[in-house]
Amino acid sequence: MLAEPFFNRHPGIWKMLTVTMCMVLLGCLQAHKLQGHVSIILLGATGDLAKKYLWQGLFQLYLDEAGKGHSFSFHGAALTAPKQGQELMAKAQESLSCPKDMAAGDCAELKNQFLQLSQYHQLKTPEDYQALSRDIEAQVQHEGLWEAGRIFYFSVPPFAYTDIARNINSSCRPGPGAWLRVVLEKPFGHDYLSAQQLATELGNFFQEEEMYRIDHYLGKQAVAQILSFRDQNRQALEGVWNRHHVERVEIIMKETVDAAGRTGFYEEYGVIRDILQNHLTEILTLVAMELPRNISDSTAVLQQKLQAFQALRVLQRGSAVVGQYQAYSEQVRTEQQKPDGFRSLTPTFAGILVHVDSLRWEGVPFILMSGKAMDERVGYVRILFKNRAYCAQNEKHWDPVQSQCLPRQIIFYIGHGELGGPAMLVSRSLFKPSVSPQSWKEMEARPGLRLFGRPLSDYYAYSPVQEQDAYSVLLSHIFHCQKGSFITTENLLASWVFWTPLLDSLAHEVPRLYPGGAENGHLLDFEFSGSQLSFSQPQPEQLVPGPGITPMPSDFQVLGAKFRESPLVAAWPEELISKLANDIEATAVRAVRRFGQFHLALSGGSSPIALFQQLVMGHYGFPWAHTHVWLVDERCVPLSDPESNFQGLQAHLLQHVRVPYYNIHPMPVHLHQRLCAEEDQGAQVYAQEISALVANSSFDLVLLGMGTDGHTASLFPQSPTGLDGEQLVVLTRSPSRPHHRMSLSLPLINRARKVAVLVMGRMKREITLLVSRVGHEPKKWPISGVLPSSGQLVWYMDYEAFLG
Ligand SMILES: *[C@@H]1O[C@H](CO)[C@@H](O)[C@H](O)[C@H]1NC(C)=O
Ligand SMILES: *[C@@H]1O[C@H](CO)[C@@H](O)[C@H](O)[C@H]1NC(C)=O
Ligand SMILES: *[C@@H]1O[C@H](CO)[C@@H](O)[C@H](O)[C@H]1NC(C)=O
């Protein structure tokens, strides 16, 4: 039998063995010493998750708990027939391991005990469930025990949930006085409605307190530590855990693997549903929620979590950037037998900007990011503090404890990455945290290792005394009825309420393609301003999918398509306008961030009206206060005339947004009570105004249309004015039009950083076709002369104009 020293080291196990030996070998029973019998039923006992984590977790539970008075039995279940199922289950249990410090002989002994307590059941029909229940009762009775409770762990696909739940409720509940706990694995629905439906169905069979929805991230040691850390360091954190001191919070989960082999699942879920809606959101709430007085009180914790959800600002489409690794669509085509032209829109990468509108967090950006095929595998939560200090000394004289100039940050390092495992880091310039010495120890020095820009020695750094697998941690919580680490129905639905609108709005978004791994370079870098997030760099050409697919309503943006060698965005009208509005807003945000202002020149006409409405309705993040609005062209009529382009702009845009009046620049077509008189030099006046206010006379964005005769702005065919030369603004006229016009000249337009040409409607079909073929002939077709000298030209066309 077991060697003496083992018992000295493990008094708990000694007790357990006595109990088990009594039960199993002698049949003698000392019920008064026992706290009752617990049966754990693992549904899906032969599956991957069971094999990788769950059997090990149950074994760990057995090691931890069996010595403390309970007795256990483990029932593996699946649909497979008994004999084959038994074999498969034995395989899944093959690689059970013991804690590192346990002697090999003891380990083998304990494993053997555990396996003897496990048996396989085929669970298919209601009768199977009844039989299982009878088996458990017989066993408990036979051993003279009383039943404490049953845990059913659903490691099965969600479509099987309802059936199993019905069978458990009607045939497999334990008798009076004993508890039932059911453990559910994600996915818990696909969006708000499906999650609600599933929750309602399960609610028919189980009480809320009987259900334990697992988010295994909540069992990861660094994540489980967030609340304890906040609790143990209340005093130190009290003054700084808020918007006055926190610069931003990053919640990151990067994977190097891709989705190959599981594209069936992935196509339906994508990275936001797979990682962000659950894991990263749960972490977000742990950081953002108000700390209850007693963090062991799971009801109070859950209440605060729900309040944190309520404070989340609604996500806009501009709150997200999405990407997809380049090989993904091909993998889907192969694995799902999709046709050749199929291209998936499922994101495998997402960066999201979240705002928590609470007194504590208002204005602090929370960045959530996850992706497959990234350059490294790592997960962490990083709280970066603001820094207003300036240090007069050179950095080499800085003392990491005293220098207020060093970055100040707290990091919950979830795992992998350069540290290899879970850790907790607090900048020495912040404070020395108090941590529970039973669970965390100071890390050994690792010279040369830098994390988040600083050497490890700049941090108070801790790692777990003993690394534990998340499933083991959670199984222990389930056993001890600690509901705080599980997702309640309310919590689940709150999360879906938060994510569903964004998911809907992204459903047709074409993700940016990225090559995968280190080659991603800076391609996925993103930046934010206000509540807008955008990729920092443009999509490079070689990553734009080639031609050859017909645009379908479902993938309406022909990404990478070209018109006259410039990028083309083609879509149905509504989406086109929405895309253009988004692009204008993103350009505005970027310009304001870089230059402090945004110079926008807008055309008149009917096509832009829908665009203006869109900008007014959906773009609260637009930096109107820093935007200058210029006119591309104007009719020679009084500004109050309904024909005036300015009138249209005023009615549809300017009166609805807050552009400072001195940033609005109508064209001076009406001077000295005369309309567009050469002598009044209105064109020169406007040109001077532009030169004075717009750096290098380069507008940040010029929005143009295209007439059926190929005119653009008010530059007309067969009229050379404004097509070349020095003049920035010109007076023009076309024989077929009643009024003279004032217009930006082609050279001025071509100085712009970005020119967008919006072309909509069947009427434009012919000219579109024609212009697609002609070269640079501005005298015949002024639009063909639009070619920014150092800026970018983008065509926005609806399908009627583009395809006819
Ligand atoms: C759950 O089981 C109880 C007891 O057998 C039964 O009365 C009840 O109808 C069941 N619930 C559902 C929704 O089937
Ligand atoms: C905190 O809550 C736990 C669980 O409800 C309870 O057992 C414990 O007594 C509470 N502690 C205090 C100080 O109230
Ligand atoms: C000014 O505009 C011209 C013409 O577009 C361009 O070539 C030049 O690079 C610009 N200079 C600066 C400083 O932006």
Automatic annotation (TrEMBL):
* Species assigned in the record: Galeopterus variegatus (Malayan flying lemur)
Which biological pathway? Carbohydrate degradation; pentose phosphate pathway
What InterPro entries does the record point to?
6-phosphogluconolactonase_DevB, G6P_DH, G6P_DH_AS, G6P_DH_C, G6P_DH_NAD-bd, Glc/Gal-6P_isomerase, NAD(P)-bd_dom_sf, NagB/RpiA_transferase-like
Query: What does UniProt give as the signal peptide span?
Result: 1-31
Report domain Glucose-6-phosphate dehydrogenase C-terminal positions.
229-520
Domain Glucose-6-phosphate dehydrogenase NAD-binding spans what residues?
A: 41-223
Q: Which UniProt keywords apply?
A: Carbohydrate metabolism, Glucose metabolism, NADP, Oxidoreductase, Signal
In the UniProt record, the gene name given for this protein reads: H6PD
Q: What is this protein called?
A: GDH/6PGL endoplasmic bifunctional protein
Give the NCBIfam families listed for this entry.
pgl
Q: Where is the Glucosamine/galactosamine-6-phosphate isomerase domain?
A: 573-795
One Pfam match: G6PD_C
